[in-house]
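U., I forgot to send this yesterday:
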Amino acid sequence: IILMLFFDIILPLVLYYVLKNYMLEVWALTISGVPPFLVVIYGLITKRRIDILGALIIMGFIVTGIVASLKRDARIQLLRESAVTGTIGLVFLISLLPIKIGSSQIRPMSYYFARDMQTGGSFGSSSKKNKDVTNDINERWERLWNDNAVFRRGYRVLTALWGVGFVLEAPIRIIIIFKAPTVERAFFWTNIVTYSWLGVMI
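Result:
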């Protein structure tokens, strides 16, 4: 869990604050999205699974790359986070709908997020023993989902709260981006808003 949070959240922040002293802020913001991208690729290659937190953050990397190629404006780059958090909110809300993929019905996004946190996401050990533990955890969560109505209701409510929160967070971030006196302050305060909300929900 610590490694997952380090690569998905802490390292991108550190990279931005270091690199912005040596290059355009636009590219510092773009490069700061690389670690979560690598985490997702690592998980796909070594475990054939997608780290949920990394997958959500990777959307920011993709949007950043597109925007960076269109306009070299750091404030426009920061808007990519608002687009991403808004999109994440919609994904959370959509996951509450009774949608089936093949023979399986999708679960609320917070269910997958919490399960990944317990198994270590992409950084869970690949040893046979730990694979067995991960499989046991997945099977236990599946049983709880199928047999426990309170468990299902809890994750549906949590997913709804996250979804609404992320959707509402986007306009707040946009206001900060265009009202802050400097890009650095805008970057700092928009991240404070995001991670404060994550801290409250976690």
